[in-house]
TrEMBL record:
Family: Belongs to the paxM FAD-dependent monooxygenase family.
Record domain FAD-binding: where: 23-372
Gene3D superfamilies: FAD/NAD(P)-binding domain
GO MF entry, a single one: monooxygenase activity
PROSITE patterns: PROKAR_LIPOPROTEIN
Lineage, uppermost ranks: Eukaryota, Fungi, Dikarya, Basidiomycota, Agaricomycotina
Protein name: FAD-binding domain-containing protein
SUPFAM superfamilies noted in UniProt: FAD-linked reductases, C-terminal domain, FAD/NAD(P)-binding domain
Alphabetically ordered keywords of this record: FAD, Flavoprotein, Monooxygenase, Oxidoreductase
Cross-referenced Pfam families: FAD_binding_3 (PF01494)
Superkingdom of the organism of origin: Eukaryota
Amino acid sequence: MNAQQSKTTIYTKEGELQLPLNIVVIGCGLGGLAAAYCLAQAGHNITILEAASAIGDVGAGIQSSPNVSRLLMRWGLGPQLQEIGVKIQALSLKRWSNDEVIGWTPLGDLVDKEYGFPFYLLHRADFHRVLYEAAEPHCNVRVNSRVVSVDPSKPSVTLASGEIIYADLLIGADGVKSVTREYVVGGPDQPRATGDAAYRALIPAEKLLQDDDLRPLVEKMESNIWMGPGGHIVGYTIRAKKEFNLVMMHPDDTEGGIESWTAEGNVDKMIETYKGWNTTVQKLLALVPSTLNWRLMDRDPLPSWIHKDGKLALLGDSCHPMLPYRAQGSAMAIEDAAVLGNLFSHCSDRSQIAPLLYAYQSIRYHRATATQRSSSLNRFIFHKPDGPEQEERDREMRAAKEDALRVARGEKSTYTLTGNSNQWADKTKSDIQFGYDADEEAEKWWLVNGKRLMALVPSMELKPRVMSSANRDH
Ligand SMILES: *[C@@H]1O[C@H](CO)[C@@H](O)[C@H](O)[C@H]1NC(C)=O
Ligand SMILES: *[C@@H]1O[C@H](CO)[C@@H](O)[C@H](O)[C@H]1NC(C)=O
Ligand SMILES: *[C@@H]1O[C@H](CO)[C@@H](O)[C@H](O)[C@H]1NC(C)=O
């Protein structure tokens, strides 16, 4: 269905006639759906092109940190989030050999209080479904529509069927292995092997509940990270505590391995990898029915997310793919989408498309790049072999934990957490990540630059002026 046909005339906040653009979003993943939703809300005509024959998503656990929950709740998805999410109570950093809790950061209601929005653990497929249900009524979703080539200057895309689709603007939300990125960058990218791979698995939570040592892992609703030499394991419960999600980082031993979310892994090999780890970990891994092995590749930040002709922009993993060490990949894509939608709600002339895209990039680039870098930082922090550096790390994390416990008892914080090895305990870092409001950033940009942008449009004066309250104020 195409909502555009039933839409009445829309005005921008400045009282200009809003110009409904034809926008083609390439890729129906989390980022593509979020972009489609936001741009449709901004009054544009959106077509999503998806290569697969059915809409859906694979993968396992993802996190909706407060900065993302903030946006989703603003989009009216609060009840759905609450239904599909598990509210994370704390982050627990544990030692590989004896299961000791070394670092601990309380989250739960504290996060609500501090940032105004909850922190949820979700199954990626549930999250995708919620976004799809939000976006689909407002845009045209086409499956079996693989984009084989792009003309970034028309702009248009050609599908595998030979069909050519023209638009005013193309948004490349086609993920880590983006085709559209090649057009922006000017060729295929050269990802580097990180030397790590990640096993992923889901265990029915009832299996953990049957074991006294494992039951707390479900009941406490914490995110657990076991740090060990050369690897770490992340485990938390999702799907209304019905499933336990595991991601296990380890040295990449796949010869000529491929970067794929769906490559089958070998359970025996997986268990062998963590052979010396504590009994709790071993018991947990013994419950894994099957696993996927995902080779982790690193990519440098792109010089630009926008094609020079100003009609094609990238979003989410296609322009800033993240290593999963800090669970922020999907958050970044959702924030990108919010900023894009917000900016394009101001669009009253085609000549504004390129400047608005550059505004999107300038608002998002620094943050996404910084997150890209800080998420790889955890790899070096977590994977230290036992020795002086590991002991120093653990000392820092323990001090932060003692401090968190003091605060939880109602006492004063007495320890400086800035730069702490437990990046979640670092309040400065968390404020930057969780306090960020993507919509607010876009509004700020518009307040400073909007008038100048509008002044560049000569035809503007010819358009009917409508007195809105926003307009009268000036
Ligand atoms: C696991 O840790 C506990 C202490 O928390 C210890 O008693 C036990 O020996 C450890 N098991 C292994 C296999 O290291
Ligand atoms: C919406 O965009 C699609 C793709 O560009 C186009 O085929 C369609 O005609 C547009 N609909 C309207 C109402 O402009
Ligand atoms: C939200 O916060 C997380 C904190 O870990 C951060 O990684 C992510 O980049 C933030 N997202 C946005 C859109 O700012």
